């Protein structure tokens, strides 16, 4: 797109916990993109004009991040930014704190959309099907089983199912131990329902909303993660007879919440129809598969929304699958493993000599095929190749991690 069509917008800053997909989409659209990111993955650095580390590794630290620190990091890039785009974890940035436009919904709209308690009440008022929610004061009224999860964010890693009161109390204690910010007031207790996890990816202006794609969500897939509710990727498109109803509900919601740009609505496809689970008021993890299947650049479309423009509704030309591989153990990223992931044409490629924690995301793989079954089979084969390589390396050098830890301790001691 020409600069005149973009309103002379060229230099973009993307800031968030994990920004790789947004940065690479913007780069493909021809923008000069800088990133402040918690991981600075290899492929993010390849796409970005420049990148630096977000000095936050936990939710608590994100909440304490001051705008002055972000502005100091912005200045270090040596560019005059035309727009800032907040990603995961930093959706609530105060737009008034920054010298350039922020391409995002208002912090108030994002806060309301992210708050599952508020969303539940709004869905009730709109008459839209959703899981029943219980407040901490309603423990005696709970009908089990229930899902326990953070009020906002989480990626599924903190989601737990309780089948009785004893399990619920144990889960609340466990979550607080994992993250002190997770208390009875900051988690939500929802009716547990069976169905197929899915989502609708949308674009919206102040007056219109467009459903771009319906996606199948891969949640807790055993060959990708040991965590039962971890987000493991997507398949786009998701063919279901409930798709049109999901699109209509999603469009109604993003307009009701006054959301702008690229947003997503998560659903559960059930025997009684689509059930709304949550709203993601930001770029979603499905960005990669939506772009690959629908042949659309979501960053360019997102930027257009702030000029009041929506693209034509795209059509799927293939089934695109993304699988997020979680590491089953502590893992050292050496050159051989990086080369294998690069050969598999993966994404979210960890930097050389970084360490992946147990149950931490290792990398993402992709597959495109004429059918869903072929796409998922191709994806699974790639995952198996990566896992087989890791196991083979482990057998060859079982003490590798201990040797690395010893070297790190010696370096720290010498400092």
Task: Write a compact overview of the structure shown.
By secondary structure, this protein is an alpha+beta fold. The chain has helices at 3-6, 20-28, 42-47, 59-64, 67-76, 107-114, 116-126, 165-178, 243-256, 287-294, 298-305, 335-343, 372-396, 400-414, and strands at 11-16, 32-37, 50-53, 83-86, 133-134, 146-150, 160-162, 187-191, 196-204, 209-219, 231-236, 261-270, 273-280, 319-326, 331-332, 355-356, 361-369.
Protein traits:
Rossmann fold, alpha+beta, seven-stranded antiparallel sheet, 35% helix, disordered C terminus, D-amino Acid Aminotransferase, Chain A, domain 1, 3 domains, Dna Ligase, domain 1, 415 residues
How would you explain this protein's 3D organization?
By secondary structure, the protein is of the alpha+beta class. It folds into three domains: 102 residues, Rossmann fold; 60 residues, ATP-grasp fold, A domain (Dna Ligase, domain 1, 2-Layer Sandwich); 200 residues, ATP-grasp fold, B domain (D-amino Acid Aminotransferase, Chain A, domain 1), CATH 3.30.470.20. The protein is 35% helix and 24% strand. It contains 14 helices and 17 strands. Strands 13-12-9-10-11-14-17 form a seven-stranded antiparallel β-sheet, sandwiched between helices. The longest helix has 25 residues. 43% of the residues are buried. The C terminus is likely disordered.
Please give the domain count: 3
- CATH fold-level name of the largest domain: D-amino Acid Aminotransferase, Chain A, domain 1
Indicate the low-confidence ranges by residue numbers: 406-415
**CATH domain class name of the largest domain:** Alpha Beta
Largest sheet: 7 strands, antiparallel
Radius of gyration from CA coordinates: 21 Å
Strand content: 15-25%
The averaged pLDDT comes out at 91
The CATH architecture name of the largest domain reads 2-Layer Sandwich
Shape: globular
Q: Which strand order do you get reading across the main beta sheet?
A: 13-12-9-10-11-14-17
Helix count equals 14
Percent in helix:
25-40%
Give the CA-CA distance, first to last residue: 51 Å
Count of extended strands: 17
CATH fourth-tier homologous superfamily of the largest domain: ATP-grasp fold, B domain
Helix/strand/pairing category? alpha+beta
